[in-house]
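Thanks for the sequence, V.! I ran UMP-CMP kinase right away. Repeating your input here for the record:
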Amino acid sequence: MTWKGNKILNSINIIKKYLHKLSLLLYIYQGMEAKLLIQETTVVVFVLGGPGSGKGTQCPKIVEHFGFTHLCAGDLLQAEIESESENGTMIHNFKKEGKIVPSEITVKLLQQAMQQSDNNRFIIDGFPRNEENRAAFENIVKIKPEFVLFFDCPEEELTRRSLNRNQGRVDDNIETIGKRLKVYFESTLPVINYYNSKGKVQKIDAQRSVNEVFEDVKSVFAKFKPVVRALLHVVGSKDFIVIQLLICWSLYSLFKGFF
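Predicted structure:
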């Protein structure tokens, strides 16, 4: 074998070695859902709007299309009620009276849910409901929202939708709905205005159909489309490993005449 041929053979072996390492790394990354490849910071989006604005309908769609984990403050509180714990009884009494649950309780439930998740992207539905909630979340969890998704809807429509819901909840009656709307306009709307002053509110017209509303939501979340995950899935697939082998064979075929 000539000196030139030996040099080319060594080059091919080096290429093959690194391609092999690449395939192993991609296999590991794929198995760990690419967490080692992209260390993203935690992303939190607050989803706010009046009772009946459609937050709970849109959130699962965001989860499906953009890979976020949906945390509903109301659901977490309801689960705590059903656990019949001391906190659960207290939460039940607050909700029955149409009052807001103390911030520390809600924030700790949210924090626990986030810590137990293997995701780092969260949409938090129905929180913060007041300035105290907002401050408690930022102080305890130490995270500020990426933005606030605000479903804007008139009071009359909110009332109609709330009355039409039949979820068997203790707070689904006309008197308590009125209290909840009062709390929303007096306490939650100022939080939305606060974030709006920071340029962090994405306002959605929630009076329209579910599909029409989601078209606007998709535009807001477009930058969070999990394209990278899709690419990693392709790169880590068996097809890509076959491509690597074909590259090695092609290089060998190209230079085999030299030795």
